[in-house]
Amino acid sequence: MAPSRAKSFSYLFVLVVGIVLCVFASPVFSKSLASQPSPNADVELICHTDNAKDCYPKVFQATDEFQIVHDDQELPHGLHVRLNMSNGKKEAKINVPDEGNPALEGLPVDQAIVVVDQGQTEDSQIPKGAPAYEPIGKIKEPQGEEFVGKPFFTAIKMLKAGETNGGKEFDDALEGMEELSHDIYYGLKVTEDPAVLKALFCMMADSDVAYPADITPRDHQAAAILGASLQNNAAALKEVTKQWTGLMEAQCPKTGKSLKDSLYSPLVPAHVPTSINTKTLASTAKAKVGAINGLMKSDIIRAEFLKNDGMKLLLEVLVPQGKEWETTQRKVGQLVLDTFLDEDMGAKPGQWPRTERTSDAKCRVYETSTEEGCWDYHVARILKENKRDSGHWSRDLHDRLAALRKNGKYPPRVELHCFKPTEVRACSRCHAVSYCDAACQSANWTAVHSKECKVLRKVTEQGRPGLPTPVRAVIQALVKPEIGAALEDLEGNVVSWRNSEKWADMEMMAMGASSFAGLGTGQTEVQKALTLLCKIQTNAFHRYDADLGQVGIFLGPKLAMANHSCIPNAMVQFVGRRAILRAEKPIKADQEIEISYTDYTFPLSKRTQALAPYFFDCLCLRCEKDLNVYQVCAASPVIDMNRHSLVVDVGKLGRHSAAKDSSKASAARRYSEELSDLLDEKDLSPSLETRRAALRARYQQCKGLVAEKLWAVSPLPQLLSEISILYAEEENFVYALVTSCFIATSCDPYRYVLPYHPIRIKGLLLVAKLLANTAADTASLGNSQSVASKRDFNQRALQTLQEIDQVSLCQMLLIMILKSVPRGYAQEWEVSVTAKHMLDEINQLPGRDQELSLINSWTEKPEADQARAFFEYAVVKQVDALANLGVEIFEMEFGQ
Taking phi first (over 0 means left), then psi (-120 to 50 degrees means alpha), and beta for anything else, what does residue 173 get? Predict the structure, then answer.
């Protein structure tokens, strides 16, 4: 049994932050006051004179704009610190991490697509006495920078004169130019002169020159200068776009090639001088990707880049393997997401990809490995190599690309109050939260949005995509006192978090939350936000939906008191915004309630990995003795409840050989651990043929489990479910129905013994849906060659269907679902709503008086002998007849 996550509790509090499936989110921090904030009374000050105005806080108080750091001030961790070249002073601000912050990658971001007019206005008021501001957009020359700017203008002069073969003087000038190009003024100076641009682009394309190890290659320097000049500099990009056509027609003097040909030369040269090591090569490629990223913000340049197969250059960067290439490849991935796939980052859908996916076999061949259709292959390869990193950039790129290839659409958007996958409309003021209708909008406004709307509006006005979920959760706790008070008594594991590698990132998130909430970034305020963040990260549940994936986090102080066990006596079921605690087995008075923080059917290594963020080792019997699902099932006190389920012989649940035979139990443990990596594999290829081949390969890997008939041992159940889904997508509804029945009778009852476990209820609904869409004729088999070659089996399968009263079976399964719904939630749970709708349609069918009489008798008195006999015949026997064909299908289709 695990240590408790809470010390005590107050009243029930629910905190849910909704998100969409495109799983990538950049960390966002505040836009706070431009000047140094006035210190609070309790802040320790440093005073070197008697004048109070000369005093400043001992601990530097950061905003999102650079401020001077005094020599004797203490700097908190995680700030962005720089040396101002114009005055020689050290300055710092809140750090805005780039796309490479691994601790924040994959955090969900709120999205919206259509604006809702709330009918609310907010007057733009200028406080009395506020200073006058100059018009936005005026780029002024920095003052007093004659000495600092000298290397920059020296480089400009040498580039214009074509003196690019110089030695140390030229290298020093380029270094100074790179340092200042980040400034908008200097960046514009770089781009407004065609001769300078031409020289830099030609230099960036020339990678054949060898340099000493301590000298940055000039192609690297040129790329870094161009990338810095274009970063967040609209005026500079406008200048480059204006000159682009003329630049592409120019010739590079050293090579004699057109600048266009030079620009589209490989980022990873085929022939590399022996003096250049891999790290230098990867670093230079990263600088060039940065320059391309800046150019991609121009519609004209981006269109030409695509026309000239520029994506092939970026794909070349994903081919090399090794740690030296990780940051460069991440930069490529982020460029593709932000430019072509992620609308919240400004992407314009429909531009790319322009070709269909190439087969993996073809992409493995070096000569064709950088075809445009091979993006999927290389991203999937990188994802597989980093499968243990749930926030790796490749996961978001892989999922978005797969969804786009499949149907030309992005994953469904989720309504951020009731969590329904539907068309959503955004709050017209902050554009950060979205709703399906006015009722949800009003409910969320009352719950929390009235307090956070102004905060989220700041984010939108800064052009940022949204806030990471934990940051938004902290802000809600800060701006709504009753939320913060509800978290007061929760355990935060602050010491454990402080000793973890994620502590610096958590400090940054807390600082951003405090600043955005308008509380400032003083030590006291940030510490309060950090404490709340630790409590949220320790006690929150991931709001996971089997169809939509993770759609938010849930935090309830009472629910957080439940300890963990891999053999829990209770479970948490989510219905909309509610989390329902349901018993999985009888619980006596004063007995501790235990739930599972992870999927308890996974092998021990996977469970241990999932529990790592909670900072404890599970000591339950399942973990201590490494019990398999059959052993846990055999000891369950609720086996007998399966008399009202699809299980033919309830006693079999306690008699499986893997529960009694030590050698078989050992085999179950061994195979499950050896094959645990298959749990991370999921082929989302739009090609059904490709997916079938991948599933066949994985099934072959599971032959040990199949031979031992260990159908309920992971990863076999997950694989069989994917096979069933494949059949449905192939429109082979007969095979899909048979395999779903097999899973519902031979896998799920051993994994989740309780008949009304949500997984089992969803399995019933799937069988009911397939029954409603499956006719006992050849049309339901689809038209693939694979199916056509199995006439004998198909005839037996169709004969089995013909002997079943599909309507009555479907009707009784739907009634079983509705009986299993948590009391009072039938109108809120999507599963029960769907079942009720299907049942209403069946009830309207004419000529079924005799069947309805029997079904009604069973519904009213299910324990009566006649009702039991009818249920056994009309449901259990029929499902079992279909399930008995399952193994034959698996072996016939995937075991050969």
Answer: alpha
Distance CA 531, CA 511 (A): 11
Q: Which residue has the tokens 């001088």?
A: 273
Nearest to 107 by CA among 548, 550, 448, 424: 550
Q: How far is CA 536 from the centre of its chain?
A: 19
Helix (H) or strand (E) holding 329: helix 326-336
Q: How far apart are CA 816 and CA 697, in angstroms?
A: 36
Instruction: Supply φ then ψ for residue 342, to 5 degrees.
Output: -100, 100
- Tell me the two tokens of residue 236: 């500079």
Contacting residues for 367 by C-beta, under 8 A, at least 6 apart? none
| Of 529, 524, 535, nearest in space to 509 by CA | 529
Q: Give the pLDDT confidence of 209-244 residue by residue, as tens digits.
A: 555 556 678 888 888 999 888 887 888 888 898 888
Question: Do residues 193 and 156 lie in contact, with contact meaning Cβ atoms separated by under 8 Å?
Answer: yes
Helices 830-843 and 758-773 meet at what angle, rounded to 10? 30
Report angle CA 412, 417, 421 to the nearest 5 degrees.
20
Burial of 216 (0-12, 13-18, 19+ CB in 10 A): middle
The amino acid present at 87, given as its one-letter code, is: N
Query: CA–CA separation, 530 vs 470, rounded Å?
Result: 11
Q: How many CA atoms lie within 13 A of 699 on its CB side?
A: 21
The three-class DSSP label of residue 782 is: coil
The three state secondary structure string of 485-524 is HHCCCECCCHHHHHCCCCHHHHHHHHHHHHHHCCCCCCHH
Task: For residue 330, give the nearest of 411, 401, 396 by alpha carbon.
Answer: 396
Q: Tokens 């915004």, residue?
A: 577
92 strand-pairing partners: 67, 81
Half-sphere exposure of residue 422: CA atoms within 13 angstroms, side-chain side = 15
| Rounded CA separation 330/342 (Å) | 15
The one-letter amino acid code at 564 reads: H
- Helix, strand, coil proportions of the chain in percent (round to 5)? 50, 5, 40
What gap in Å lies between CA 820 and CA 335, rounded to an integer? 47
Closest CA relative to residue 882, chosen from 782, 809, 779: 809
How far is CA 58 from each of CA 70, 509, 513, rounded to the nearest angstrom?
A: 9, 22, 22
Please report, as a single letter, which amino acid is at residue 218. R
Q: Would you say 852 and 812 are in contact if contact means Cβ atoms under 8 Å apart? A: no
pLDDT per 10-residue tile (average), the chain, 896 residues: 41 35 32 42 69 77 78 73 62 58 36 32 41 43 56 84 74 83 84 88 74 71 88 84 86 80 75 63 88 87 85 88 87 88 71 78 69 86 84 85 67 56 68 75 82 79 67 88 86 88 86 87 90 88 56 76 92 84 91 92 93 89 95 94 91 92 93 90 70 90 94 95 90 91 96 94 93 65 55 85 91 94 85 90 87 92 92 94 93 87
Question: Would you tell me how many other CB atoms lie within 10 Å of the CB of residue 482?
Answer: 10
Burial class (CB in 10 A: 0-12, 13-18, 19+), 690: middle
3-class DSSP assignment, residue 835: helix
Within 13 A of 844's CA, how many CA atoms are on the CB side? 6
Place of tokens 């009707």: 811
Q: How many other CB atoms are there within 10 angstroms of residue 845's CB atom?
A: 11
HSE-CB for 241 with a 13 A CA cutoff: 17
Spatial contact of 514 and 556, defined as CB atoms under 8 Å apart: no
Question: What sign has the CA pseudo-torsion 526, 532, 536, 538?
Answer: positive
Tokens of 139: 């780029």
Cβ distance 529 to 510 under 8 Å? yes
| Cα–Cα distance, 418 to 624 (Å, whole number) | 39
- The residues near 246 (Cβ < 8 Å, ≥ 6 apart) are 194
